[in-house]
């Protein structure tokens, strides 16, 4: 093995820096993409529809306050189009302040105060719901406090309240402030998104590292084509043995890079996945790249096919997989080599499939 | 001793070799001649264990090719027609690369000695900076790292200057004379063949080569 490492270093002398750069790409690029999705996108306001069926100034002032939030781009709509606009994905979500809203607020009726509409594409719904809720809750709290003070004053006229009663009232107020309730509605069979979550960092990483793995294995394809390889027959290592060693060295480097990525994401981004799941997807990627490298002799064809594979995986992951679920064709999701990993499972099916292909390939070749 | 007995080979329906038989003593230099496509390289590749004959048997020092391929390969030094070198590595790095893959361990000094025997002293020059003749010498030097006793060369002097050609021929002559190495090589250069070889094998139907060699008094097998 030492000889093989020496040879690898000798051959990669000029590409050594490049190789290490490529090994860091999955972690760094994932962090970059993650930052863009989770931080930079915060700068963009989310289109939200608000219908106001009330004539009260108080309601208008609440809506005004909601619109003051930079995150929210308020568009005034009619109550009867609230659902349709979400369904057509023109708006992220919609909120209806009906004619009873003010009456409910004034009389401290918390339930069914606002009607909201959202779909599974309402990516910002969780954050918007919280923002709208916070404004309404604050106003509700004011009305509640006013009501309570009035009540205390009335009681004072009759009989002076002791400190214990006031304390109980305050605690009651605090408790009630946090209990504003909503009636949520959504459409068709679409699964509602309960809360906006951070993008899955391991999902991005798996796609990037798959691409990098295929790219690094170009090294095997280009070396295999070298005329110098015909000499291997007259050495201790035949072609197969030589490349198995070389693939092993690359695998070790890639696994080290995976473990670093896992550590960074686990401890700095607090996103968790088991190491076994990461190692299983690594095995699948190595087998995938190996099969491609064995089957494709031309470097440019190899790179082109690799690019198509990655594009296909992106389409599968972000478009086809959700579609298959809604069409009740969930089993087709396994066409995506990363599907099991994305679902935090150990990647088995694709690895077994690729091993079968390799076994068949050897059998045919030896025959 | 290398014994070839009734060896035949065909590519699909095209018969390239038909019942070739020859016995070659240790230390002999054998030239394989004939027109293009006559089967010289195919025969050389069969002797190098890179191709299996469809028919016939071959033994080298009583080892059967069929059953002792790995052991026989250790005895073979193979010089392909292509310049099979790492162009971006230096002369010495190329030697070290194959030494690390070789069955026989050699020190840097021993590797340098092989290169000096070839009159190749630009150890630190990159292969891509070398002349065609120097590349051919390095191509040959790499094949000698594991001390083979049977040297098979496919047009080792093609496309190089006369000086390099003479130097390579001198090396082959030395290997045969002093190291008792059996040398079998293909060439289109009849002067080279007649000067260097002990015997020749003529491939193909064209009588040109046979007549030419007979005129020169060259033994033909």
From TrEMBL, chain A:
Keywords: Cell membrane, Membrane, Transmembrane, Transmembrane helix
Bilayer topology term: Multi-pass membrane protein
Subcellular location(s) of the protein: Cell membrane
Main subcellular location: membrane
UniProt cross-references to Pfam families, sorted A to Z: ABC2_membrane_3 (PF12698)
One Gene Ontology cellular component: plasma membrane
InterPro entries: ABC-2_transporter_component (IPR051449), ABC1_TM_sf (IPR036640), ABC2_TM (IPR013525)
Keyword Cell membrane assigned: yes
Residue ranges of the TM segments: 16-37, 202-221, 242-265, 271-295, 302-326, 346-364
A GO molecular-function descriptor: ATP binding
ABC-2 type transporter transmembrane domain residues: 25-343
Protein name: ABC-2 family transporter protein
Species, as recorded: Aliicoccus persicus
TrEMBL record, chain B:
Organism: Aliicoccus persicus
InterPro entries given in the database record: AAA+_ATPase, ABC_transporter-like_ATP-bd, ABC_transporter-like_CS, ABC_transporter_ATP-binding, P-loop_NTPase
Record key words, sorted: ATP-binding, Nucleotide-binding, Transport
Family membership: Belongs to the ABC transporter superfamily.
Pfam family, one: ABC_tran
A single MF term (Gene Ontology): ATP binding
Kinase listed as a keyword: no
Residue ranges constituting the ABC transporter domain according to the UniProt record: 2-220
Protein name: ABC-2 type transport system ATP-binding protein
Keyword ATP-binding attached: yes
């Amino acid at each position: 093995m030492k000889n093989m490492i020496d040879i690898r270093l000798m051959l990669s002398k000029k590409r050594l820096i490049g190789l290490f750069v490529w090994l860091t790409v999955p972690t760094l690029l994932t962090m970059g993409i993650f930052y863009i999705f989770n931080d930079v996108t915060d700068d963009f306001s989310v289109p939200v529809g608000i219908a106001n069926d009330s004539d009260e100034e108080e309601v208008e002032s609440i809506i005004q306050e909601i619109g003051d939030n930079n995150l929210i781009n308020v568009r005034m709509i009619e109550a009867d189009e609230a659902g349709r606009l979400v369904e057509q994905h023109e708006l992220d979500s919609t909120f209806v302040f009906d004619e009873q809203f003010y009456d409910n607020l004034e009389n401290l009726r918390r339930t069914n105060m606002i009607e909201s509409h959202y779909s599974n594409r309402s990516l910002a719904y969780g954050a918007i719901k919280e923002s709208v809720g916070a404004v309404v809750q604050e106003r509700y709290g004011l009305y509640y406090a006013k009501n309570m003070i009035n009540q205390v004053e009335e009681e004072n006229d009759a009989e002076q309240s002791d400190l214990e009663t006031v304390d109980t009232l305050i605690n009651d107020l605090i408790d009630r402030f946090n209990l504003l309730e909503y009636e949520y509605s959504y459409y068709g069979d679409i699964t509602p998104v309960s809360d906006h979550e951070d993008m899955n960092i391991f999902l991005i990483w798996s796609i990037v590292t798959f691409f990098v793995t295929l790219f690094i294995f170009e090294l095997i394809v280009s070396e295999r084509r070298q005329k110098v390889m015909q000499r291997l027959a007259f050495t201790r290592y035949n072609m197969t043995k030589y490349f198995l060693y070389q693939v092993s060295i690359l695998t070790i480097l890639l696994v080290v890079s995976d473990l670093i990525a896992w550590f960074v994401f686990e401890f700095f981004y607090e996103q968790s996945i088991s190491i076994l799941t990461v190692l299983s997807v690594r095995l699948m990627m190595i087998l995938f790249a190996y099969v491609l490298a064995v089957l494709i002799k031309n470097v440019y064809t190899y790179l082109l096919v690799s690019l198509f594979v990655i594009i296909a995986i992106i389409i599968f992951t972000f478009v086809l997989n959700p579609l298959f679920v809604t069409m009740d064709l969930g089993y087709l999701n396994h066409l995506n080599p990363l599907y099991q990993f994305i679902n935090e499972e150990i990647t088995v099916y694709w690895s077994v499939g690729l091993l079968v292909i390799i076994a068949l390939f050897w059998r045919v070749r030896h025959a | 001793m290398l014994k070839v007995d009734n060896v035949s080979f065909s590519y699909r329906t095209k018969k390239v070799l038909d019942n070739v038989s020859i016995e070659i003593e240790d230390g002999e230099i054998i030239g394989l001649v004939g027109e293009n496509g006559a089967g010289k390289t195919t025969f050389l590749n069969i002797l190098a264990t890179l191709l299996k004959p469809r028919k016939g048997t071959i033994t080298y020092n009583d080892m059967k090719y069929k059953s002792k391929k790995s052991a026989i390969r250790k005895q073979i030094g193979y010089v392909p027609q292509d310049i099979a070198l790492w162009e971006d590595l230096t002369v010495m790095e190329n030697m070290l690369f194959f030494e690390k893959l070789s069955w026989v361990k050699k020190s840097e000094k021993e590797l340098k000695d092989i290169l000096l025997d070839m009159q190749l002293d630009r150890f630190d020059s990159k292969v891509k900076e070398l002349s065609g003749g120097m590349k051919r010498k390095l191509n040959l030097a790499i094949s000698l790292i594991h001390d083979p006793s049977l040297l098979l060369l496919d047009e080792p002097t093609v496309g190089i200057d006369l000086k390099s050609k003479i130097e390579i021929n001198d090396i082959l002559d030395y290997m045969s004379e002093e190291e008792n190495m059996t040398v079998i090589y293909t060439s289109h250069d009849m002067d080279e063949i007649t000067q260097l070889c002990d015997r020749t094998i003529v491939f193909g139907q064209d009588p040109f080569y046979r007549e030419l060699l007979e005129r020169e008094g060259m033994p033909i097998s």
